[in-house]
Amino acid sequence: MYEIAYERPASLTQAIELLRSSGGRPLSGGQTLLGAMKLRLAQPGTLVDLGGLAELRGITREGDVLIIGAGMRHAEVALSEEVRRSIPALAALAGGIGDRQVRNMGTIGGSIANNDPAACYPSAALALDAVIQTSERTIAAADFFTGMYETALGETELVTAVRFAVPRRAAYVKFEQAASRFALVGVFVAQTDAGVRVAVTGAASAVFRCRQLEAALDREFSPAAARAVTVPADDLASDPNATAAYRAHLVPVIAARAVATALGQA
Q: 3-state class of 197 per DSSP?
């Protein structure tokens, strides 16, 4: 095992100073970073633990916006009365991430900053027109997720909160890879006053909006309308778990299930 310095700052300001001075990596829930370190895919000289920062905690609602602190764990989001009341689909999504251990350790900020191509939270952020609040600025979800494991975050910039627009109704459904419980295809459907937004995870190199489904569901918000959509396989991922063609077939099927859930038909 190589030598690692461990720092546990008392404030967000101190955390950023430590990251700048040490060139280290922030540690939130650690569900991805610690696994990567075990495999020697990541070898940070310093870990800056964000787990004790009160500035990253809390769940509040301001008007039609639900604000979740980056340090909130998946289990806390799933069990939050405010989340269940404001965006039940988001609570259900959080409750379906990984297993109990992952849900009790992983954080929403860590998941969004990591931007795994099969993670669940990025689809919610994109479909719910979220704004990512950082230690330096605010970034629209549409501009935040830039590629596979890539985001618009700067080197020492930290996610501090996520601001979700509360929809009229929404639902998230995923078709899981049995061993990892990551999404082979996950679809978050949100019906808002401005129209329907559909975000897909697990199917490509990064989360994306499916405009074909959005157009169809704007015309008719029904499972049948979603199932009738043909999604091209050209830009979708092929791997040992599923081909691009299979994922293209799954997207409208899973979207139809999400619409049924949003309508209370599932």
A: strand
